[in-house]
Amino acid sequence: MTGLMKGKRGLIMGVANDHSIAWGIARTLAAHGAELAFTHQGEALGRRVTPLAQSVGSDLSIPCDVEDLASVDAAFARLDEAWGGKIDFVVHAIGFSAKAELKGRYIDATTRENFTRTMVISAFSFTEIAQRAAKRMSPGGALLTLTYGGSTRVMPNYNVMGLAKAALEASVRYLANDLGPDGIRVNALSPGPVRTLAGAGIADARLMYAHQAANAPLRRTVTLDEIGGSALYLLSDLSGGVTGEIHHVDSGYNIVSMPRPDILKA
Ligand code: NAD
């Protein structure tokens, strides 16, 4: 394709299968010339991720559970062996919360234990990855994470994940400010709902897809290729002047308040 990512090496974290947002991003970056390494959470997912990695020419499929810092450090050590301690970009597409708490009212559903776990995995892990990746980056390096509009507006059943995404978005701004003087950019994509494993953990997820398709200005949900295209922009030199940004890829859903008065009249 364009060769926009030619000469750039990056780590993709968060592929579970070929429906994963991280996979949509990875295949776009590979098509534009990027050299990729992948992490997977545990052996079972490794069996899915390794062949996907191979399909885009990567033999680096490395185990990494972000709850276990030793496993994060081991993953970076493995990467150093392969790439000599240098990396150009990271995609962090990791989120988790107990399914039982992504259901019903936030005030009733949320426990201290799962609140903490959700924050560590879904928000703070991005900072821990940034701490390690930035040391290996030169000016021009870029970090990208994945958030969702439930951070700023209430979505039914999204609950504690909304709070974690708010923390993640704030960390994008703090990290962007910290790493800007080194020429490293930090941004987030905020896609509309996509049918993935993580997405299916939210009660009534199908209603979120249907609501976006009915009410977003483009009157549809977004595709993995569209999310990949936005990631390509934010990770390539095309967006060289952009950092600390939360970029929506949601068919415009975030801009509307009362989208369809026609439905009420019918
Ligand atoms: P997915 O299930 O395909 O990916 C989630 C990934 O997180 C999986 O690969 C899983 O292994 C990984 N993960 C969870 N806990 C982990 C841990 N402890 N260590 C390492 N990895 C761990 O789902 P997805 O929808 O592609 O999710 C990717 C990101 O996109 C998440 O941050 C999610 O919140 C965000 N997002 C999703 C949607 C959506 O509608 N699906 C919309 C906006 C943002």
UniProtKB/TrEMBL annotation:
GO biological-process terms attached to the record: fatty acid biosynthetic process
Pfam family, one: adh_short_C2
EC number(s) given by UniProt: 1.3.1.9
Active site: 148 (proton acceptor), 158 (proton acceptor)
Residues the record lists as binding NAD(+): 14, 20-21, 41, 65-66, 94, 165, 194-198
Pathway(s) per entry: Lipid metabolism; fatty acid biosynthesis
Catalytic activities: a 2,3-saturated acyl-[ACP] + NAD(+) = a (2E)-enoyl-[ACP] + NADH + H(+)
Any one GO molecular-function label of the UniProt entry: enoyl-[acyl-carrier-protein] reductase (NADH) activity
Enzyme class, spelled out: oxidoreductase
Keywords attached to this entry: Fatty acid biosynthesis, Fatty acid metabolism, Lipid biosynthesis, Lipid metabolism, NAD, Oxidoreductase
NCBIfam families documented for this protein: PRK06505.1 (NF005078)
Membership in a protein family: Belongs to the short-chain dehydrogenases/reductases (SDR) family. FabI subfamily.
Record protein name field: Enoyl-[acyl-carrier-protein] reductase [NADH]
Recorded name of the encoding gene: fabI
